[in-house]
Design a protein that fits this description.
mainly beta
Length: 110
């Protein structure tokens, strides 16, 4: 997916205190979203990350996959299913106000 799929830059670190990139498989049935909270300001407004490259008709299960053993995700959309259309119009609340925090989020079509 990372070598043969599509790559999208979603949030620029030059325009905000966060960055997000996404890789989507060629068949648009699997994707990985990487988000990084670099140095967010105190009480800064966190916007949803609008995804790109998904199939608008398919349903995708959201799962945070870079968790330490025994930890649970605090991602509001974790283990939920959304349409590609919703994710590309509304997005995910994947960014946080924690400095140097990152997330790896897997999206699998069902």
């Amino acid at each position: 997916m990372i070598l043969d799929g599509s790559f999208y830059r979603l949030v620029s670190p030059y325009e905000s205190d966060h960055t997000a990139v996404m890789h989507v498989s060629e068949g648009r049935d699997h994707a990985v979203l990487f988000t990084y909270d670099i140095h967010p300001l105190f009480r800064s407004r966190l916007l949803p990350v609008i995804l790109r490259g998904l199939d608008p008709v398919k349903k995708y299960r959201i799962r945070e996959i870079n968790l330490m053993p025994g930890e649970t995700s605090d991602l509001p959309e974790n283990e939920k299913v959304y349409s590609g259309d919703y994710l590309m119009k509304v997005g995910l609340d994947a960014l946080t106000a924690t400095r140097m925090h990152s997330r790896v989020i897997e999206l699998i079509a069902e």
